[in-house]
Amino acid sequence: MKQAQTFENIEITDISTEGKGIGRISHPGKDPGDVKNKIVCFIDFAIPGDVVDIQITLKKRNYREGKVIQYRKYSERRTNPVCKHFGVCGGCKWQNMKYEAQLFFKEKYVVDALTRIGHIPLSSRISPSPLERDGVRPGEVLPIIPSQKYFHYRNKLEFTFSNKKWLTQEDFKTLNIGEDLGSAAYALGFHIPKLFDKVLDITECHLQEEPSNSIRLEVRKYAIENKLTFFDIRRQNGFLRTLMIRSTSTGDWMVVVSFFYEDKPARENLLKHLSAKFPQITSLQYVINAKKNDSIFDQEVKTFSGEAFIHETMEGLQFRISAKSFFQTNSLQAYELYKVTRDFAELKGSEIVYDLYTGTGTIANFVAGKAKKVIGIEYIPVAIEDAKINSQINNIINTDFFAGDIKDVLSNDFIAAHGKPDVIITDPPRAGMHEEVVVKMLEIAPEKIIYVSCNPATQARDIALMSEKYFVEKVQPVDMFPHTAHVESVAQLIRR
Questions:
Q1: What kind of architecture, by CATH, is found in domain 6-73?
Q2: Among residues 9, 66, 352, 397, which is most buried (max CB within 10 A)?
């Protein structure tokens, strides 16, 4: 058997957008002192400032992946992770990094993406100011807005039931692995990264406040005591599939249990038990999902007790959230993000605003009070229905929402009917905007474009396509997800 390649004393100098430490190793047989002979290696759970010995786990033409086998020096940016599942769960890849360092690297990622991918002239505290380009001074990258809470900040978690849990080192010590483990192999938790059929049994999670942990643990305990079967994703059998827990700052709690098939007595007994045990639950719902995947967006969600939705509030506005609704999972930071978006739009009250990828209309309704009219467009019809309801419950009468593929909806006839926008706000998914949407925006040529993005790389790509007509005035990074590599970026584009 070929022995895995190892390297010693590798300094971690940066961190990737996936949250892995970056070091450089020498090509075998070549001069280790020659920079040209160095190749990038991505290393799990290593952070900048560490000096480590590594073992190569994946070899590609232009890079390597590795794991730490020994620490020679610990980075000053390190801290002790809070969660016992850190390093296995995969949800919080940066819990071992001080929060101030996390913010630095997120801000750096935004700057690097926009300048290296988009070739956008920017001034920031991360990098020196570039020279003016095309007679336009460089845009300003403002200091990242930190999350007000970096634990218990999520308002939504989704857990998976599995009859084949991921076996930890502790399990190997305490279980008879060669035997049928029965319910000892049951898990209610998160998927192991890159392994679709393995789920880590979560006993604690610090991302959502109580009673989230207590609800999950009680469901697991009740299910095992009452011999309810957990789902087998390979064999497609088992009773319990998924558990969703949502909360709001108003104190509402929604719990949605997904079952593979209907067993009315078993289902009702579980839901009655939950309802009695946790009076905090204001919306208890269930789904019978016999599909091969866990998605419930095409399934009927039924209410067992309470209301069919929960409410979030911002500046006196109410937002109704159903089981299928999209809402930013960090409510406090969502408010910060929307305030930045509204401020960047610089509305005076006379403007027509188009909100592309409007989702449930959160941004559209949030900025409506400062605009003459807001047009929201989204390709998911059920989201548009939520957006309309959110306007209705807030007595907002200057919004209109339309469902359809944005590149098709944004026709000349549509613009003639609803007015040429003075400002376009766009908040696309991670893949960014379709190129035809970018072309149409350039044709419409509003005075300002506010680009909200959860992926600075695709944001940079799209802005580069608009650089002939628009320059970046300023950029605001916002941290929505502490302990992960994800960062939001809001860019203000001004027509040349």
A1: Beta Barrel (2.40)
A2: 66
Cα dihedral across residues 146, 148, 153, 155: positive or negative:
negative
Place of tokens 């000349």: 412
Q: What percent of the chain shows pLDDT beyond 90? A: 82
User: How far from 22 is each of 103, 215, 475, CA to CA, in Å?
Assistant: 17, 39, 26
Statement: 107-149+316-495 belongs to CATH 3.30.465.10: no
The pLDDT tens digits for 338-347 are: 999 999 999 9
Whether omega for the bond prior to residue 211 falls within 30 degrees of 0, making it cis, is: yes
Q: Which two tokens stand for residue 429?
A: 């998914």
Active site residue 205: no
Phi-psi region of 258 (alpha: psi -120 to 50; beta: other; left: phi over 0): beta
* Digit-coded pLDDT (tens) for 356-380: 999 999 999 999 999 999 999 999 8
Lowest mean pLDDT segment, chosen from 2-16, 74-88, 176-190, 259-273: 176-190
Pairing status of strand 301-306 against strand 309-314: unpaired
Nearest to 263 by CA among 226, 316, 291: 226
φ and ψ at residue 414, rounded to 5 degrees: -60, -45
Give the integer Cα–Cα distance in Å for 137 and 131.
8
Domain ranges of the chain: 6-73, 107-149+316-495, 156-308
pLDDT at 170: 78
Catalytic residue among 41, 83, 205, 454: 454
pLDDT, the chain, mean? 93
Higher pLDDT, 64 or 169: 64
If phi > 0 it is left, if psi is from -120 to 50 it is alpha, else beta; for residue 353 that is: beta
- pTM assigned to the model: 0.92
Q: Which segments within 153-198 are labelled E, that is strand?
A: 156-162, 187-191
Q: Are 6-73 and 156-308 the same fold in CATH?
A: yes
d(CA 8, CA 55): 9
Q: What is the mean pLDDT of residues 291-316?
A: 94
CATH topology of domain 156-308: OB fold (Dihydrolipoamide Acetyltransferase, E2P) (2.40.50)
What whole-number distance in Å separates Cα of residue 456 and Cα of residue 452?
A: 9
SS3 209: coil
Q: What is the pLDDT of residue 326?
A: 86
